[in-house]
């Protein structure tokens, strides 16, 4: 029974893919989202869960680094101004 279910998903996804090729990017995105929602294997959801944690960690690190770099540049500028004023 599970094989029949997978065949029906792959057949509908194949048909959906053929209909989507000639359409707009928005329709393609909706079709991809529909296939994501219809996927019952759980692999996609697990990978998405792991990757979103990694992605948010990297983005947070980049924001922290940018703020540190900006504060350092301002401090160096202030020290240079103080040295020149003295």
Overview of this protein structure:
The structure is a single chain. The protein has 86 residues and is mainly α. 88% of the residues lie in helices and 0% in strands. The protein contains three helices and no strands. The radius of gyration is 25 Å and the shape is elongated.
How would you sum up the major sheet?
none
Gyration radius, to the nearest Å? 25 Å
Low confidence ranges = none
Shape: elongated
List keywords for this structure.
mainly alpha; 86 residues; 88% helix; 3 helices
Compact summary:
With 86 residues, this protein is mostly helical. The protein has helices spanning 2-20, 25-38, 43-85.
